[in-house]
Design a protein that fits this description.
- The protein has eleven helices and no strands.
- Helix 1 packs across helix 4 and helix 7 packs across helix 8.
- The chain is an all-alpha fold.
- The radius of gyration is 22 Å and the shape is elongated.
């Protein structure tokens, strides 16, 4: 019985080492992509920065596009655990909040925090899309997925709860929220123009309030609505 446990221990140890090496390579690649751009960064430079061989980069992760994708994913999630974004605390708190206005405030804080980690990598991907067909496909797919996330997430919620302004269509609301959540928007305001992240989060929140949502009901109106449901 002891032998199987030993094999399991050794296997677990190898898995942990492989995961650590993979993370080390992806981190090094992400830093180089942000600093130098996709096209100017070579696999040899990534290998040197990670302290591994060129062959290890390919066997542990893959080519440059896969490295960029994983660097983006890791930065967005802040780890490499196999969890969806909806299962993570930040977005889970937004989804669980019953009040649309408070949920919007939490959402603005969430996307600001995330954009601070991923905006440089997003710009690297956008640049890569101009010179690499695989990167172009990945960039286009992520743009579609980001818009779909807004359409089927907050916009559906606003419509269902009756908080979306009558003068705004769901398609228009999706367009506006897609622009707000695009990492280059954060980069333009915070990195290029020097806004603080807190100011950017306020701007995102206020933009949604003013452009998309009906005026926030008074506390008395909220209490009356709750009482009527009892």
């Amino acid at each position: 019985m002891a032998q199987p446990r030993k094999r399991s221990y050794n296997s677990d140890l190898r898995d942990q080492q492989a995961r650590a090496t993979r993370r080390q390579i992806v981190t090094a690649a992400g830093e180089l992509f942000v600093a130098k751009g996709f096209a100017a960064t070579t696999v040899d430079e990534i290998a040197a920065a990670a302290g591994v061989s060129r062959k290890t980069v390919f066997t542990a992760v893959g080519g440059k596009v896969q490295l960029l994708k994983l660097a983006y994913d890791f930065a967005m999630a802040q780890d490499d655990e196999p969890l969806t974004m909806a299962e993570r605390p930040g977005l889970a708190d937004v989804i669980a909040e019953p009040d649309d206005y408070r949920a919007t405030e939490l959402w603005a804080e969430f996307i600001t925090d995330a954009a601070g980690r991923i905006s440089g990598l997003y710009l690297a991907l956008r640049g890569a899309a101009e010179v690499d067909a695989e990167a172009h496909e990945l960039h286009q797919r992520w743009e579609r997925e980001r818009r779909e996330a807004m359409e089927h997430g907050p916009v559906v919620r606003y419509v269902a709860n009756g908080t979306l302004r009558d003068t705004v269509t769901p398609a228009e609301a999706t367009d506006i929220m897609w622009l707000l959540v695009t990492p280059s928007t954060y980069h333009s305001f915070v990195v290029d123009q020097g806004w603080s992240p807190a100011r950017f989060a306020e701007w995102v929140r206020d933009t949604v309030y003013l452009q998309l949502l009906k005026p926030r009901p008074s506390r008395a109106a909220v209490r009356a609505k709750r009482a009527a449901k009892r």
